[in-house]
Every structure is written in structure tokens, then in C-alpha cells.
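Researcher: For the record, we're logging two predictions in this thread. I'll number them. Prediction 1 follows.
Model: Prediction 1, sequence and structure:
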Amino acid sequence: MLLGRIYNHLVREKQWNIGFPDKSLEELVHGASFSVRMLRHSYTDRWFADPFVLEVTDDEILLLAEDYDIHLRRGRISLLIVERNTLELKTLTPVLDVARHLSFPCIVHKNGKVYIMPENLFGEGLTLYEFDQKTYSCRKEKVVSTQPLADAVLTDVFGEEMLLGTFLPYDNPVLHTFVYNAKEEEVRRESYVFADKTARNAGTFFECDGRLYRPAQDGKLYYWQGIVIQQVTRDETGRLAFHEVCRLSSPAANQLSRMHTLNRYKGVTVVDMAACQHPHIARVAVQLKKHFCVIKR
């Protein structure tokens, strides 16, 4: 336990920020190398993570993201309006702030409306809010689940409403799915075990070249190590199958960095990244863990 705490301290992040890959999502899926242009802002009392693209115009990118206050040690959900050419943060507007930490504001488009479902592990569970794009305000729609699911995604890509998420710890290898009917009644649940600890969602489903993909978190060696892209299919019984197609890691070669979230909307791909507080020591610690993992096998 002590060694585990020391290891986590050495490889933990310094500060998160949002970035925009210079390659399309299609190119990333096919293994293209890439670099990331980071969001430009002057805030020193907070960092930004878990970005979801709300809207894209010729001049601006609108994001909903975790806005983490370093002093309060708590996140809220804020709207970030970004200048598209320079990636300068133009405005920061809080849209949802509660007593408990909020993150991962999964965006759901349904019946011409926009909803968000943020992670609230230590609060009331998963709540769906209708987001008003004119007033930048949230109205509580319903409690989706009282279970403490991490980085959960609500989607209808399979023709029925499905909730996907994992329980603590953060590197839990089991993904749980809950399927609901038109009356919002749970009709089926499944679980999927990932031996390499890639169960946790890293964003919402997306399509490329007629195929469906899920971004997942690579937690094999440490939390937020990188992103795994999995092609997703479904058999006649409704059970899902996940086939890994590529892994994305931070292009910052000079330090051990992390990637946690990947999302796309209207042609804009967004990620988040963070650097370790002790990059040189962290690199040695990870190599030692790799060595001991090989010995154990």
C-alpha cells in the first residue's frame, strides 16, 4: 500500500489543460502521428479537463468542461468559448456548480435539445440536465442512476438508450452497461471485463468510415496513461464486442504526460493532457513497474 501511494504521487499530473490535435479523428484512428495545440489562457488558480464540444462556428469553438478550482479542490462544469484560430480562451462561464465535485460533462443531443450528464461520484449519482444555449443555464431533467458510475456515457447509437460506466477504483477493469426502454425502465444490464484495464470511458462514441468506435482510458500502468480507440460491434443478442484498433499517448516526448479524454463534434477533435510533477523520477518509476509486471507474469 505504501509503495502504491508513493508510485501514484510520483506519476500524478501537475496540471490539466485542453488541447486540439493537428490531425483529423480519421487519421488518428489509422495510427497517424500527431501534435497537439493547447488552449491558451491566463488562469493560475484552476485547470481544465474532460472537454466536450458543444458547438462550432467559423470563429469559435464552444466547450463544456471540468473547471477545477485548485484551492477548493473541487470541479464545476463551465462553458469555455475559444477563439478558433488562436485557441485563446475568450470567456469562461460557470453553468453547473454543486456542493460536490463535478467532471466529465457528457453531452447528449436528443429531440433537438442539448443535455449534459456530469460525473458526480460522491453526490446523488448521475443526473441529466437540459442545457439552455441562450442563457447558459441547466435545468434538472431526471436522475439517470443513483449508482456511483465514473465517466459515464449515455447514448442511443444502438437504437435504444444505453448507459455505460465503471465503478471505483479508477482503473476498474469492468465496464457496466444498462439498457432502457421507451418508458425509461431498465430492461437489460451487462458487464464486460477488460484484462488490460481499458474499461473506463474516455469520451462518447463516434463514427469513422461507417464504423463505430469508443474512446477508452488506458490504465494499465497508471491512471490516465493514454487513450485506447476500440471498434464496437453488437451481436443479435445485444451484447457488445470491443476490438482495439490503436492507442494514443501524449506527443510530448520530453516528459511523461497523460491523456484522459477524447471527443469530436462537427469536425473538431478535442483532448485533455497533463504533465507529471516529477517527470524524470516518474519515468523511472514506470519502467520499474513494467519490469515487476513482467516478473509477476
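Researcher: Logged. Prediction 2.
Model: Prediction 2, sequence and structure:
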Amino acid sequence: MSQHSVNAQGWTPAPKPGLIPLRPLGFGTILGKSFAALRHNPKVLFGFAVVVQLIVMVVMLAVIGAVSFATLSRLSTVRPGSDEWLTLYLGSMAFIGLAGLLMGLFSVAFTAIVQGIVAADVRAAVLRESATLGVLWRRVRPAVWRLIGYTLLYGAAGVVAAVLIIGVPFVAIAVPTGFDGPGIAFAIIAMLAGVAGLVVLSVWIGTKLMLVPSLLVLEGAGVRAAIVRSWRLTRGRFWFAFGIVFLIGAIMYVGTQAISGIGGLITSLFGPVLNPTGSTELSLSVSMVVGLVITQVLVVVLQSISSVVQATAGALVFIDCRMRYEGLDQDLMAAMERRAAGYDDGTDPFRVDPARAVRAGFRPAPTVVPYPVPPGPVPGHPAPQGYAGAPAPQGYSTMPAGYPVAPPAYPAAPPAYPAAPPAPAPAAPPPGSAAPATPPAPPAPIPPAPQSPGVAPAPDEGWTAPGSDRP
């Protein structure tokens, strides 16, 4: 019976790591690799994801702008303040709102697809697989409708939360008072408090659910199962994940503001160059519009890059959480070793092992064991016994609670050694006879130290007391 192994064809070198090292990731690693992924596969992440989002934003602005211009331009044909003007105004607002809603759904669909493409690309980069757009699309296509449905559900929940937290308190306070001075002031305060609470709630829920797109694509989970698993996997990693997303957002925000400022400065400086005579206001307006459009295009590109980088960070946080809690790093290393040795069985290393999956009530173990702990008996272990009258051995009081190895047991008393037999008592002399006195033996003479040939012995000067004047 033959048994296959990875070494059946001889020695196989260790597989090279992909985008990330196959071990739990640190903060700096995830932050750096989130940006490095753009360079790792620029055709997909920059060429497709960024361009698609740029096109979506441009289409949204163009459609909403065209609808707004077409509807609001009719207001100039009627007298302001008349019933006909009010009817046209309300109809214009309704058309603009409907166009915005349709474009929002259009943007949501493409944004969800881009998030799925980014998660699939990160998976391919980790395993050093081919990451063409066709390969990634085949992996994302089964989860497309789940991605779109989850994104729409998340957006609808945000709208409902905004209405309940901001709109309802404002109306409940302002309407009974007739929108007078004190009433409107209290309503504004309640609205600001609601906005602050909504921001905190959205940050918390958004961070807890940031792994859902990766779970939908890489594990094939349903929407409900993905929400539950994301909530459990981020337990104990909330501030870690939030810090990464916040720092990426801050970096891209600073870059966007810098581009906007530089674009405005260039437009103001080169406006006279584009319109040297300054004869008409139309030419000056055209030059300003051209500069503004160029600036806004650059801003949209930076915002698209920011969304791609944040989606990459979410996929890397998902991989890190599974490495820490479910041993995904071992599965990834085993899969790469099998492929390097030519024994790839097609098993997906990202599949969920039910025996290792996080469950309800999961609590992550502390990453750092406090050392030293206060001295005293270790909970769950018997106190070590020392020798009689001796202190307990040192070193066991600093063992952390729940240490799996019990301390060795010491004997209660040292081992007893056999006592020497008693010496026999001397025989008593017979009555009337005296015991002969035995003189003590003289001490053995000390032989003189040997002298070297031809050297005279040192004269005996006798003993000299310490501190005497005798030399």
C-alpha cells in the first residue's frame, strides 16, 4: 500500500509568501499592505475598481445635473409666487429626488461589486494565484446579488436610524411649540445630539460589520450568516479594525483636501492666462469651470482609491481574525505546500471548519499574559510542599492562572538515612585491679622541607608576634 506525501518527488522548497506573511498580522502590516495591494495588481484594483467608481460618480453627477437643469429651468417661464410656480417647483423637486434615488441604487450596485472584486483579489494575492479580471469575476459572480442586497439593507437601515434618531426628536420638540424661539432652539439641540449619537452608532455598527463583503465572497455565506460571523470575528478586534479604517480615511482625506486646495490655487492663478483680456464674463466663467472640473475629477479619483484601500483593509482584517481565532494561517500554509509539491486537490483553504469556527459566547483569550502576578497559590493547582521547616520553592507563584502543567510534588520530609551502629562499651576492669595508665603517643616529627642543591637553608629566626618591632 503506497502512501503519498509531499516529499514523494524529492525535496520541495518552502513556498514563497504572497501579499502577506502567513501569520497573524500587526497594525502596520495591514496598513502598509492595504496600500501595497494597489501596486500588487494595478490592472484590477486601479484600472477596474477606480475607473468603475469614477465612471459611476461622473454618471451620477451628469444625470442629476441634467434632471435638475431640465426641471428648474421651467420655473423661469412662470411668475414667482403663483400657484403654477409652486406646482412646477414641487414637481421639479420630486423628479430630482427620484433621479437621485435611482442613481444611488446604481452606485450601490457597482460599489458592492467593486468590494467583492477587491476581496477576491486579496485572496488571490495571499495564495499567489492568477488574478485576472475574468478569474476574479467568476469567483464574485455567485455572491453578486447577496452583495447588492446587503448594501441596500445597510443603506436602508441607515436611513431609518437617521429618521428615528434625528427627525423624530426634532419634530416632537419643534411642532408643539409652533417653531417659536425657545422651541426651535431646543429642537436644534436635540437634532445635534441625535447627529452625534448617529455618528457613534454608525461607526460601531460599520466596524463590526466590515467583514461582511469578504465573508459573502470568500466563504459563500448568506447575508444573515455573514452578519453573525462578522459580529463574532471582530470581538476583541474592534479598536484594531476601527483604527486601521480611521487612519486610512484620515490619510485620504488630507490628500483630498490638499488636491482641492492646490486645484483652487491653480485655477485662480491661471485664470488670467486663460482669459488675458477679461473682455467677457462668459470666458472667465468657462475657465473657472474647466479648472473646477479638473479639480473635482482628481478628488473623485482619490475618493475611489480610498474606497478600494478601505475594502482591501477589510479583507486583510478578515484574514487576520480568522488566523487568530480559527487557525487559517495553518490551512493557507498547508494549501501552498501541497501546490508547490504538485499535490493540489482543489480544496479551498478559506472554507469554514465547523469544529474551529467561532460560536456564540466566544471570548478571545488575552494576547498578553500579565507577568509577574502577585505571589500566592495558583488557582487550580495544589500548593507546592517543601521540606520540613524550609520555605516553599520559588518560581511557581508567577505561573499564570490556568497553566496546564501542574508543579512537581516535593516530599514532605527528607529521606531518612540509617544510623551508625553504636560503639561497644569498654569492658569493666576486675575489682581490685587498677587500669594501667597509657601515656599519650608523642606527635610525629615534621620532616624538613627538601632543599634544592646548592642552596643554603634559611636560618631559623623563630616566631615573631604580630605588631612587634623585631624585623
